[in-house]
Amino acid sequence: MADQLTTVEDHLERILGSIRPLPDFPQPLMETLGLAAAEDVVAPIRLPSFDNSGMDGYAVCHRDVLTASEESPVHLPVVGEIGAGQAQLLAMSPGTAVKIMTGAPVPAGADTVVPYEWTDRGVAQVRIGRAPEAGQHVRRAGEDVDEGDLLIEHGTVLGPRHLGLLAAVGRATVRSRPRPRVVIISTGSELREPGQSLGHDAIYDGNSFLLAAAARRAGAIAYRVGIVPDEPRAFLDALGDQLVRADIVVTSGGVSQGDYDVVKEALAPLGSVWFGGVAMQPGKPQGFGLVGEDETPIFTLPGNPVSAYISFEMFVLPAVRKLMGKAPYSRPTTRARLTNPISSPAGRRQFVRGEYAVDRGGPHVVPVGGHGSHLIGDLASSNALIVVPEDVTSVSAGEQVQVLPLDEDF
Ligand SMILES: Nc1nc2c(c(=O)[nH]1)N[C@H]1C(S)=C(S)[C@@H](COP(=O)(O)OP(=O)(O)OC[C@H]3O[C@@H](n4cnc5c(N)ncnc54)[C@H](O)[C@@H]3O)O[C@H]1N2
Ligand code: MOO
Known about the structure:
Elements: E1 5-6, H1 8-17, E2 25-28, E3 41-42, E4 52-53, E5 57-60, H2 62-65, E6 74-82, E7 97-100, E8 112-115, E9 125-128, E10 138-139, E11 150-152, H3 160-168, E12 173-176, E13 181-187, E14 191-192, E15 203-204, H4 207-217, E16 221-228, H5 232-242, E17 248-252, H6 262-267, E18 273-278, E19 280-281, E20 285-291, E21 296-301, H7 305-324, E22 334-338, E23 342-343, E24 349-359, E25 362-367, H8 376-380, E26 384-388, E27 394-395, E28 400-405
Helix pairs in contact: 1-7, 4-7
Family: Belongs to the MoeA family.
Function: Catalyzes the insertion of molybdate into adenylated molybdopterin with the concomitant release of AMP.
Cofactor: Mg(2+)
């Protein structure tokens, strides 16, 4: 009997339809690196917040030094000194100079700063040998940011420059959604932890590392749970223990047609998790639903490593981003010239591993390795997926194809 396959779009729509962004709250700045701002941030103060010196030198009245030149220098008495953070001297009279350091407030009465290099660096009296322009080296209050300016728009993904600006205007926190907690459970009695010895029929659990790393890369907090054997009771116990700390659960393995498909066997009776086939390759067997009192979203990904990873990229990543309020939810695609021909099954969207690069001939993509969804070596040496639509069964070298770069921030 032919499989009734769901389209990739319908499955993604089913998932995103049941994901609500996490509630936002004020978080300390350093916690928000890479998170989306959940508020419009308006400047509470001006920047600079007071007129200050842009140079180490002397604060003067411009009209006192208008005529200064090497041949005919101006001499002014030095009546004080202001370092950054020392604002004792708030005003000065015409006909005098005040020694001033970079960043220190320009005293009332002064309107220009003469840099040391144009003077004899005098202590009691200063000799000024060049005429500055009016206002030279005075950094005006508000010239950078005015009070009330919109600094950061709701939804902006916060990077180092945004955090620097927020701190500079005195914000200690910014509203954002927390990092989602993603619990990853690998199922399979054949699995062993890396570092343990392998029997003749065992394999190492690569998937939980692959998925936990992908979740962390997406901005989530990833909890990698130890291996769960192919026993429904053990799986449900592990799941029950984990739900308390999960915003999302991701499982690997046990969802196809085997006799020991533990995830399907354990969850199907609940009735709240959909299991079926999605018209894609790799990654056909999928499951998604809500479990536990808090109706926690659960993704049951296929166990083949490449299938698990591509399923994460197509379905889990958009959900993580929606929880975080980060748009767009899905990775942007681009187009590139295919260097070698590829074939693809009819009726399924194929994701072919590829090496994407841009050179003088423009963007191109080289298919990497075979189609097998166990080929994790090929997966690691690729940096992109070539997307072959459902109705296309072959693509020739030189044709333009849709490409999904996997390592780019968005
Ligand atoms: N009769 C059918 N058999 C299979 C079908 C099908 O439609 N009919 N679909 C195939 C496809 S496509 C996939 S994908 C896999 C999915 O299988 P499961 O999700 O049930 O995964 P398992 O059977 O547990 O494992 C599959 C494969 O992956 C290895 N594996 C599992 N977990 C890990 C892990 N944590 N780290 C590394 N490798 C892992 C496992 O040893 C198997 O080799 O089903 C096909 N079969
Ligand atoms: O869909 Mo499976 O994921 O082709 O190997």
